């Protein structure tokens, strides 16, 4: 039963991201989003730790001290800022977040909305993704590149203040311009 529920959850999330990406013109990313969740490494862990109200990766982390599924996932999906963490070229700076290509920041934005909608259901509002971000990722300092952090925060704040329709329109216009300039 947990396997079916988990499959339904990831399918629901993936379809929401796809729908949102399509609305802004990110068709390939919408189709390919989170395919690694169907791999045994991620799917079996998701079934074991499934709860329905939050990511099973958090439950695995609480049970074992780390999440094998998350480590696998973030290393294969470029829409996660954790994918972009590497050693700085500045001597002595250590490990820092690298600037994400903007198309992945847009996908990360769609991912955050879809995750909030999936786990909150009817309790979802357009303010929720921003609140989630400000509780966690916004406090990461050097782990997320300042320009990446500024863009995702701007989009989440726009969503909270102006709503999904206006924010998606803005992103769609940005994507069109990037495509026109052959930057996507």
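-> sequence recovered:
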């Amino acid at each position: 039963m947990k396997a079916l529920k988990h499959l339904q959850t990831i399918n629901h999330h993936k379809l929401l991201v796809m729908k949102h990406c399509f609305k802004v013109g990110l068709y390939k990313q919408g189709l390919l989003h989170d395919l690694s969740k169907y791999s045994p490494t991620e799917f079996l862990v998701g079934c074991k730790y499934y709860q329905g109200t939050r990511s099973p990766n958090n439950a695995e982390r609480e049970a074992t001290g780390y999440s094998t599924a998350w480590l696998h996932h973030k290393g294969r999906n470029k829409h996660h800022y954790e994918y972009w963490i590497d050693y700085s070229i500045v001597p002595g700076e250590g490990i820092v977040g690298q600037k994400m290509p903007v198309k992945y920041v847009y996908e990360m934005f769609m991912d955050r909305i879809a995750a909030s909608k999936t786990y909150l259901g009817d309790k979802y509002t357009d303010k929720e993704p921003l609140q989630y971000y400000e509780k966690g990722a916004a406090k990461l300092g050097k782990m997320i590149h300042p320009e990446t952090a500024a863009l995702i925060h701007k989009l989440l704040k726009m969503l909270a203040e102006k709503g999904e329709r206006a924010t998606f329109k803005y992103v769609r216009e940005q994507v069109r311009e990037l495509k026109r300039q052959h930057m996507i």
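The longest helix spans residues 2-24.
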